[in-house]
User: Fold this.
Amino acid sequence: MALPPLRAPHPASGYHRIDCERRFFYLEQDPTTLLRVKWLKVAVTCPVCAAGTGLTLVLEQGADDTVQVRCPARHHWPEPAIDVAHFITYSRLLHFGALQPDLMWIADAGFGEDPPPPIDNLEQIRQIATWTAKRAVRKGRTKVKRAVRTPLRKARRRALRAAFTPVAAALRAAWVLRTGALPAAPARPPRPPAAPKTPPLSAYRKAYRMPAPKKRFACLVCEDTGWITAPGVSIKCTECEGPVAAALKAAERKAGRARTARAGGERARE
Ligand SMILES: [Zn+2]
Ligand SMILES: [Zn+2]
Assistant:
């Protein structure tokens, strides 16, 4: 059978042509349901090579009784199962929009080309998530690096400056010698005068010939002897522990103070 030449579709003059990328479905009444009409979607398939995609469907009103189909492999066959009225309605829908709303149920029932698959942006979402995570990691790493690098740089700069100070002084001296002037030490700002020290109180006492205060007794009863003595009486002091105990206690206090001072110093050094 010779292939009829293909023309541009012109539904208004009765020439319908639909080129499909995806599968094309026609409607067939479900024979199992008796009480209500149910339509089944059936895909158009090439009887020779079983191709279901890339089909071209043609119907010329007045010339064809059935829809003519050709597949990409140039097989050509009439498809009487496709309802001609459905096909014309669908072709008009494609070209002119929904002119007959009461006939649009065929599109709802699934007549026509398979709708394009939904846009699969799952991969994009995954990429964005990966990118965001990587960016967060990168930013965090930059932050940490900066926190480490800045003090390091500062220390290095300080060390370099300290190391090059004598070199700079020598260069300056050489330059001054070459230009003829005597090398002069850079002028230092004058040191501020130290504040006068306050002499201890004993120095004042000595200068004014004041008598030093006498040592007071810790225990006024026994005058730090530990014994209450009177004519006919010699007993241990009842108010204090005696000089030996007082000395021991003083020594213990001193040792305790030294211990706390050492502990405090160690804590401060940590
Ligand atoms: Zn074929
Ligand atoms: Zn006493």
